[in-house]
């Protein structure tokens, strides 16, 4: 299957042309997504006050989207080691952004969830922030959506191979 013509030259786009376009689209889209739905002021204040950073966002968003999870389940969902996830959960808990409770059925398990006072505004923010992603996926046919997601999984897999260290546990900002 031939590549579509390059938008600027009319010639067939090469992989390098497409990488350049992807990088431009990724940067612009990320900027647009971040600025379209900034986090609620109370959330930003709690993050700043507690010295948290972008590395904490996946744990917070995943918990908000999935509901109560064990720390092990959260670790698996965000692709970090259990020890790193546990540390992040502790930091988010001290900031008041997550609550930890002992599992009644298995006292060795810790369950994390959003505190009641943040739940409504987090849900509203997430719905607004991810509306463009949801709309994009809805506009795609089921087959195109499956291919789109397959492409992102492959990109994740390839990026994971080139990341220094044995997983995504880098805690740099």
Summarize the structure.
This protein is mainly alpha-helical and 173 residues long.
Summary keywords:
2 domains, three-stranded antiparallel β-sheet, globular, 8 helices, Arc Repressor Mutant, subunit A, 173 residues, single chain, mainly alpha, disordered C terminus
Give a structural overview.
The relative contact order is 0.11. The chain contains eight helices and three strands. Helix 4 (71-78) crosses helix 5 (82-94). The chain has two domains: 38-129, Winged helix-like DNA-binding domain superfamily/Winged helix DNA-binding domain (Arc Repressor Mutant, subunit A); 131-161. A hairpin with a 7-residue loop joins strand 2 (99-102) and strand 3. It has 173 residues and is mainly α.
Shape estimate: globular
Number of domains: 2
Give me the CATH superfamily of the largest domain.
Answer: Winged helix-like DNA-binding domain superfamily/Winged helix DNA-binding domain
* Number of E strands: 3
**How much helical structure, as a percent, in the residues?**
55-70%
Radius of gyration: 19 Å
Overall CATH class of the largest domain:
Mainly Alpha
Sheet with most strands? 3 strands, antiparallel
Query: How does the helix and strand content classify structurally?
Result: mainly alpha
| DSSP helical segment count | 8
CATH topology of the largest domain: Arc Repressor Mutant, subunit A
Strand order of the largest sheet: 1-3-2
Order of helices and strands: HHHEHHEEHHH
Q: Indicate the proportion of strand residues.
A: 5-15%
End-to-end CA span: 40 Å
Q: Can you tell me the CATH architecture of the largest domain?
A: Orthogonal Bundle
């Amino acid at each position: 299957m031939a590549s579509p013509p390059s938008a600027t030259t009319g010639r067939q786009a090469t992989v390098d042309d497409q990488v350049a376009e992807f990088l431009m689209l990724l940067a612009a889209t990320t900027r647009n997504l971040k600025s379209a739905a900034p986090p609620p002021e109370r959330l930003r204040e709690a993050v700043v006050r507690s010295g948290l950073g972008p590395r904490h966002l996946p744990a917070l968003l995943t918990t908000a989207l999935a509901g109560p999870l064990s720390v092990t389940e959260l670790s698996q969902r965000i692709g970090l080691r259990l020890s790193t996830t546990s540390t992040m959960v502790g930091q988010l808990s001290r900031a008041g952004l997550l609550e930890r409770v002992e599992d009644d059925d298995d006292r060795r398990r810790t369950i994390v969830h959003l505190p009641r006072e943040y739940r409504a505004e987090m849900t509203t923010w997430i719905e607004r922030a991810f509306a463009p992603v949801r709309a994009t996926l809805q506009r795609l046919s089921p087959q195109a959506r499956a291919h789109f997601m397959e492409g992102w999984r492959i990109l994740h897999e390839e990026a994971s191979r080139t990341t220094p260290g044995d997983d995504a546990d880098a805690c740099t900002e």
